[in-house]
Design a protein that fits this description.
Layout: H1 11-24, H2 37-44, H3 48-61, E1 64-67, E2 71-74, H4 93-117, H5 120-135, H6 140-158, H7 161-169, H8 171-184, H9 190-208, H10 212-233
Antiparallel strand pairs: 1-2
Helix pairs in contact: 1-3, 2-3, 4-6, 4-8, 4-9, 4-10, 5-6, 5-9, 6-7, 6-8, 7-8, 9-10
């Protein structure tokens, strides 16, 4: 006789499931505000990190929205299939992982070439996107747009037509992967948004100083972190 290992649920998974049941049952109605992280932590008698991890999963599943400095709200439009046991991210798991893997190899090369070949016009374009990132650090939707634009602009700065075509052909998939990975990234707190901004700034600085090795490595490190977060949650 063989037995399958049974892993006891983590605290965050228990909280996630309980909150999800309360949302699906209508106790927390669409558009309503959830208690603060501190209040939830006190109510469930767990640490705040446990609450944040549970909320991160619910956000990735489409059940809640996070507003930096404005609280956590039940999504006005809940997922079509309100099945608390359904992982809505599963169908895209393999696709998301493959896109990130491809990005690591393509974009590290684009960054190296951009550092070698960038023009003042390329730098100006990157600087404008960086400024947009700074201005929209509290606006998740606009941050995603700026994030995708930044990566595509680096390809443009490589001045390699094939690289540019590759990135443009993957533009929609990359935009989707950025959106999904940002949803998964640790509760989308302002601290996380600022950390992502700092990573993009480091890539920009390496390109600006024409350090191709540093530009490639910094981009690779950035995308490797994205990959790690994705694997952790998926």
């Amino acid at each position: 006789m063989s037995f399958n290992m049974v892993r006891p649920p983590k605290g965050s998974e228990i909280v996630q499931q309980h909150l999800l049941n309360r949302i699906v049952s209508g106790e927390y109605s669409p558009g309503s505000r959830l208690p603060t992280v501190a209040d939830l932590a006190n109510g469930y008698d767990v640490g705040r990190s446990t609450i944040r991890e549970a909320l991160s999963a619910l956000k990735a599943m489409g059940y809640i929205d996070i507003k930096h400095g404005g609280g956590t709200f039940v999504s006005k439009q809940l997922p079509i299939e309100n099945d608390p046991n359904k992982n809505v991210l599963s169908p895209s798991m393999d696709s998301l992982r493959e896109v990130i893997e491809a990005r690591k190899y393509i974009e590290s090369g684009c960054s190296a070439l951009a550092a070698e070949r960038r023009t003042e016009e390329d730098l100006e374009a990157l600087e404008q996107i960086i400024q947009l990132m700074i201005n929209s650090v509290d606006d998740e939707t606009q941050s995603e747009v700026a994030d995708a634009a930044f990566h595509l602009q680096i390809a443009q700065a490589s001045h390699n037509r094939l690289m540019i075509q590759l990135m443009e052909s993957l533009n929609q998939r990359i935009g989707e992967s950025i959106g999904e990975s940002r949803k998964l990234w640790f509760y989308s707190e302002r601290a996380t948004a600022e950390r992502l901004l700092a990573e993009h700034l480091s890539i920009y600085e390496a390109i600006k100083t024409k350090n191709s090795v540093l530009a490639s490595n910094t981009m690779l490190q950035h995308l490797s972190k994205v990959e790690q977060v994705t694997k952790k949650h998926l």
